[in-house]
Please model this.
Amino acid sequence: MSAISEELRTEQFVMSLRGVVPYVYEQAWQSVLDGTPLSRTALHRGPDGLLRRTLRPEARFRLQIVDWRATRAEVQDARLTERLAGESATGLPLDRAPLMCATLIRRSDRDWTFAWRYARELMDRRAGLRILEEAADAYAVLLRGGTPRRTAATAQSCTTAPVTAPPRAALPGAPLTTGVRTRGPVA
Model:
């Protein structure tokens, strides 16, 4: 872990989804992030020791997809808890854009868990919720055979903004079953 990643706080969202088409979901996220500099932002330490934002020419949203269907539900829950704790402890590679990681875990034939973590310096919780909502909207458009809008949430840092509600829309064909659970900020 680099010295920068030790200082970086992360925000983590975990959602239960039903009936997701993984590669369409990844494409929806990419379409949302393509419309904003968020996906191309990396951090580096300047000569004065302060963190500086750098915009990369392009960045690919990477969705890790894992399949835990062969594992009992209680073991899956323990693995998820362990995985989330491990991700939080590991930090994010700050010199690589985007400053986020996402995992889609298949828990049964229809049930999935989506875990998304991003650098708190990148955006606050309110902007994170808005990105989740826009990804759900883009997913719905893609499932209908359309092309999603290429606009994304405004992600100005507003670290004191409270989280008052989960995203308004669940994925079509993939209703939110347990809501959005946030874990953060995590050092």
Summary: Residues 125-143 form the longest helix (19 residues). Confidence is low (pLDDT under 50) at residues 1-6, 151-187. Residues 70 and 108 are 8 Å apart (CA to CA). The longest strand covers residues 10-18.
